[in-house]
Design brief:
Chain A is an all-alpha fold. Chain A has 14 helices and no strands. Classes of the chains: A mainly alpha, B mainly alpha.
Amino acid sequence: MSEAVVRARPFVAARGEGWAGWMLCLPAVLSYLLLLLLPTLAAVLLAFTDYELGAPALNWIGLGNFQELLGDRGFRISLRNTLVYVGIVAPVSIAGALGLALLIEAATRGRALFRAVFFLPVVSLPVAMATAWQYLLHPTIGPLNAALAQIGLAGPAWLTSSDTVLLSLAFIGIWEAIGFNLVLFLAGLTAIPRELHQAAEVDGVTSAWERFRLVTWPLLGPTTLFVVTITMIRSVRVFDSVAVLTQGGPNRASEVLLYTMYTEGFTFFRLGYSAAITLVFLVIVLGLMLLQTRVLDKRVHYG
Amino acid sequence: MAEPRANPWPAVLRFAFLAALGLLFLMPYIWMISASLKPLDEIFRASLNLLPETGGTLRNYARVFENVPVLTYLWNGVVVCAGILFFQLLFAVPAGYALAKLHFPGRDWLFGLVMLGLLVPYHVPALPLYVGFSWLGLLNTYTALITPSVISVFAIFLFRQFFKALPDELIHAARIDGMNELSIVWRVILPNALPAATAFAIFSVVAHWNDLFWPLIVVTGAERATPALGVLTFRSEEAGDDFGALMAASVIMTAPLVLAFLFAQRRFVEGIATTGLKG
């Protein structure tokens, strides 16, 4: 059918649908090759060289950068901090968002308002919000410690003590992530037909918890899986709050992967070494995506 | 569902809990605005008062506008976001249409490339792109800020999915009317793609207005700094301990997107819910 119509048109028929298809894709294909594929391949290749910006030549050093990474205490701390950060931000922001979504969905009034309030951090400039948090968490002039002082507690130096800095950044990360996850969960919840809950009730499932366990949770499976992966990938990319508030300090206590990659590459201009860190970052992200498609996918009941 | 009527307490408690938590969520905004209105000595007093005790409340804002090229930052944000979105749509809409509705050799292969592109975070090509722009002498230009983002595989993916659902008859009718494929894209497909385009536009603008990573790499001076970089520059160079002015600057740079969000809340949230995929 479609081909008959196409042949009826002299213009398309002259060069065919193949010509039109490639012409329409051409700008995208060229920019894809030039701006995405080639630079990505170049980054992978760079990781095996000792290239430094401004250096006259570069040498192929094989796994040299990766060997150096293994022995680099700073990098090991950075990797560990990133995993700790993800390990805090992902579960708390996911569970928190799910709880909030269920509460908002069940609320009789103010649903739009609450959704807006919790979503606000997603659209707010992270750099600006980080400065606001810096003020809130400031040890001497910050309202948080002022409030703690009112009840006789001495608050820590949240962002400048190596004991609390990662925790404080994770807290900011949770605040930023919850609204995003909340919206995805709310979208997932509205897709569940109300009749299913009513049917469960007819079948004698009366407690809210049982209804959640037997109906909502299994049907929310695909959404949850998606939220889990996307949250982990987004939090592996933590950069702004570190760059603004701590620059990885104190004593590397808040050094994270992307920030280490940034300083090695764009402050010290060790592009080869920085590319090796980028590759580690890429492998982690790809691993999380693989986890989504291979492992987690099998445990989810699609509705 | 009959429970709430019989017993109002769960609903009341739920509302109270959400309201209290919501207020906690708004704390950074409340304190940011409050500090932006206070004179310095009050900010440093660690009081829990939200309103300034003395007058002169807009002095911080005046100081920001005097000392910081705020309007330049905002304008750069607008130029960069608009430029990026323009090219993203210009490249992705025809490609999405071709991948969805045309049959041509290599199509599946191209779609494979799109899926592959979805896997790569934009930080990965950043290093070689930086080297390239520095070779070309293009650092600190709009070109360097806009170019790397003109290709959005996510946009191609989104539009392809969306166009697949459009009826073929629409396209056949346009061909019978004598339209070529290019005019079909812009005059038939694009008007039908507005919901997807709006959702994507929201996602794109939020991402690039707020992005710090790439501007931090390619921009070296205030004249091309985006809002995110502007706040960072102001923090590290000029503000020092001037929290009041810093908070005022933060309010100014955050306001455009937050106001846009408050005005077009429903679209915003749906936009993120449908395009949230990319994150």
